[in-house]
Amino acid sequence: MASVTRTVFGDLPSGAGTVEKFQLQSDQLRVDIISWGCTITALEVKDRQGRASDVVLGFAELEGYLQKQPYFGAVVGRVANRIAKGTFTLDGKEYKVAINNGPNSLHGGVRGFDKVLWTPRVLSNGVEFSRVSPDGEEGYPGELKVWVTYTLDGGELMINYKAQTSQTTPINLTNHSYFNLAGQGSPHIYDHEVTIEADAFLPVDETLIPTGW
Q1: What's the mean pLDDT in 71-82?
Q2: In 40-73, which positions are buried (b, 16+ CB within 10 angstroms) versus exposed (e)?
Q3: Taking a C-beta distance cutoff of 8 angstroms, is the pair 75, 162 a contact?
Q4: Whole-angstrom Cα distance, residue 41 to residue 182?
Q5: Which helix (H) or strand (E) holds 66?
Q6: Torsion of CA 52, 70, 109, 104, to 10 degrees
Q7: Model's pTM, two decimal places?
Q8: Strand partners, 60
Q9: Which residue from 18, 24, 70, 145 has the highest number of Cβ atoms inside 10 Å of its Cβ?
Q10: Are 173 and 148 in contact (CB under 8 A)?
């Protein structure tokens, strides 16, 4: 059984709105999520000795998320990762989107989904965030309605993404958390080992665009 607690996290500049924090907690883990960018600010789990540690990187205050930072814990979109030279062709029409990472567009552009205030709805075991991305936002075609739902079931945190568009458009959503399994504040992650079960990998060029080879 999970509990959900709702509090104020901070106010945006110039009266642009109030950012709320939602804490989902079970007997196995606790996660804090704010309505600015649907961002996970903390994920506290117990290690094999039963000691609780926050294993994601984040900020204690809203100001950290409003400054330039590497998308800590946020939902990124409309398109996660890079679009080469900020250009794509869809149904025979060329679209140009905002360039914000060298020669490419990254994580939705200058003002992606991580840099907007979402509308929350509390659930019995989680929280649902929603927003409408207007036609033409950051250069993308079509109005896009988006829902991101976080639910907690025992030791399992689930993220569900749903989108509905008024016309054909690229959409690729993800969460951009950075993990340190030794707990936030630990020196580094250089002794962590990760195994990925895959038959192939996708090579990229010097700007991190897939080569197609």
Answers
A1: 97
A2: bbbbbbeeeeeeebbbbbbbeebeebeeeeebbb
A3: no
A4: 16
A5: helix 62-66
A6: -130
A7: 0.94
A8: none
A9: 24
A10: yes
Mean pLDDT of the 55-83 span: 96
Cα separation of 46 and 65, whole Å? 26
Angstrom CA distances, 201 to 81, 106, 151, 173, stand at 16, 20, 31, 20
Beta bridge partners of 42: 32
Q: Smallest Cα–Cα separation from 31: which of 128, 123, 156?
A: 156
The answer to whether the beta carbons of residues 2 and 24 sit under 8 Å apart is: yes
Dihedral sign from CA coordinates of 32, 179, 152, 144 = positive
Q: What is the pLDDT of residues 125-178, one digit of tens each?
A: 999 999 999 999 999 999 999 999 999 999 999 999 999 999 999 999 999 999
Picking from 169, 12, 192, the residue whose alpha carbon sits closest to that of residue 77 is 169
Q: What is the pLDDT of residue 14?
A: 95
CA atoms within 13 A of residue 101's CA, in its CB half-sphere: 21
Q: Are strands 174-175 and 18-25 parallel, antiparallel or unpaired?
A: unpaired
User: Distance between CA 74 and CA 162 in Å, rounded?
Assistant: 16
CA dist list (Å): 178 to 1, 30, 39, 86: 26, 16, 12, 25
**Angstrom distance (rounded) from CA 51 to CA 57:** 18
Residue 27 near residue 34 (C-beta atoms within 8 A): no
If phi > 0 it is left, if psi is from -120 to 50 it is alpha, else beta; for residue 48 that is alpha
Distance, in Å, from the CA atom of 157 to the CA atom of 142, rounded to the nearest integer, reads 31
Tell me the C-alpha distance between 109 and 170, whole Å: 13
